C-alpha cells in the first residue's frame, strides 16, 4: 500500500506541483525561474518513474566488483528493481556466460570462509559482524547455487548488506542489496 501511494505521488502530485509552480511564477513575471523549477521537478519525476530503466551494465559490474566478483564476458540484464520504504533495496538478475559462472563458483568454493551447505536464508550473525572492522564476507553453497554475502558498516547507524547468488542450474546471477 505504501509503495502504491509513493507511485501515485510520483506520477500525479509531482507533475501537478511543477505545473502549478510554473503557472504561479509565470503570472508573477518570473517565467525563467518557473522554467528552471519545472525542469527540476520534471527530472525528479522522470528519475522516480523510470530510474530502474536507466540501470546499465557498467553499474551492475561496479556493484559486483565492490564484492570481489568480476565478469569478463558479455552479460544480459534480465530484470532490475530498486526502491525505498524504510530502507533502500536494489535487486537485479543478469544472465552470465558459462565461463564467468565457473570462475565465480570456483572463487566462492576456494575462499577461506566457504561453508558447504547452509540453510536457504543465511545471514551473517550479529556476533560475527561485530568482530570485524571492515567489510565482512561469507561464502557458502545453497540448493542450486552458491552465494557470497557481504556486510559493511558505513557508520554507526547505517549498513550495507549484499547477497550475490550464482544459480548452478541456469547461467544467472542474482544481486540483492539492502541499506539500512
Q: Could you outline the blueprint of secondary structure elements for this entry?
A:
Elements: H1 2-27, H2 31-50, H3 57-65, E1 76-84, E2 88-95, H4 98-109, E3 114-115, H5 126-131, E4 136-142, E5 145-153, E6 159-167, E7 172-179
Parallel strand pairs: 3-4
Antiparallel strand pairs: 1-2, 2-7, 4-5, 5-6, 6-7
Helix pairs in contact: 1-2
How does this model look, in words?
It is a single chain. Helix 1 runs antiparallel to helix 2. A hairpin with a 3-residue loop joins strand 1 (76-84) and strand 2 (88-95). 14% of the residues are buried. The mean pLDDT is 79. By secondary structure, the protein is an alpha+beta fold. Helices cover 41% and strands 29% of the residues. It is elongated, with a radius of gyration of 21 Å. Strands 1-2-7-6-5-4-3 form a seven-stranded mixed sheet, covered by helices on one side. It has helices at residues 2-27, 31-50, 57-65, 98-109, 126-131, and strands at residues 76-84, 88-95, 114-115, 136-142, 145-153, 159-167, 172-179.
Work out the radius of gyration: 21 Å
Largest sheet: 7 strands, mixed
| End-to-end distance | 21 Å
Shape: elongated
The helix-and-strand class reads alpha+beta
Read across the widest sheet, the strand sequence of neighbours is: 1-2-7-6-5-4-3
Topology order in helix (H) and strand (E) letters: HHHEEHEHEEEE
| H/I helix tally | 5
Helix fraction, binned, reads: 40-55%
Percentage of β-strand residues: 25-35%
Mean pLDDT over all positions:
79
Number of DSSP strand runs: 7
Amino acid at each position: 500500500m505504501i509503495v502504491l501511494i509513493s507511485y501515485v505521488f510520483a506520477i500525479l502530485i509531482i507533475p501537478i506541483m511543477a505545473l502549478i509552480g510554473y503557472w504561479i511564477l509565470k503570472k508573477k513575471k518570473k517565467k525563467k525561474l518557473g522554467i528552471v523549477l519545472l525542469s527540476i521537478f520534471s527530472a525528479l519525476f522522470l528519475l522516480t518513474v523510470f530510474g530502474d530503466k536507466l540501470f546499465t551494465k557498467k553499474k551492475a559490474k561496479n556493484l559486483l566488483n565492490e564484492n570481489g566478483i568480476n565478469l569478463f564476458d558479455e552479460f544480459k540484464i534480465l530484470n532490475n528493481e530498486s526502491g525505498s520504504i524504510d530502507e533502500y533495496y536494489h535487486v537485479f538478475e543478469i544472465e552470465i556466460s558459462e565461463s564467468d559462472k565457473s570462475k565465480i563458483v570456483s572463487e566462492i568454493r576456494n575462499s577461506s570462509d566457504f561453508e558447504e551447505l547452509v540453510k536457504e536464508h543465511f545471514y551473517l550473525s550479529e556476533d560475527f559482524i561485530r568482530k570485524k572492522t571492515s567489510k565482512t564476507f561469507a561464502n557458502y553453497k545453497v540448493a542450486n547455487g552458491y552465494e557470497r554475502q557481504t556486510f559493511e558498516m558505513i557508520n554507526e547507524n547505517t549498513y550495507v548488506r549484499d547477497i550475490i547468488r550464482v544459480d548452478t542450474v541456469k547461467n544467472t546471477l542474482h544481486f540483492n542489496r539492502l541499506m539500512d
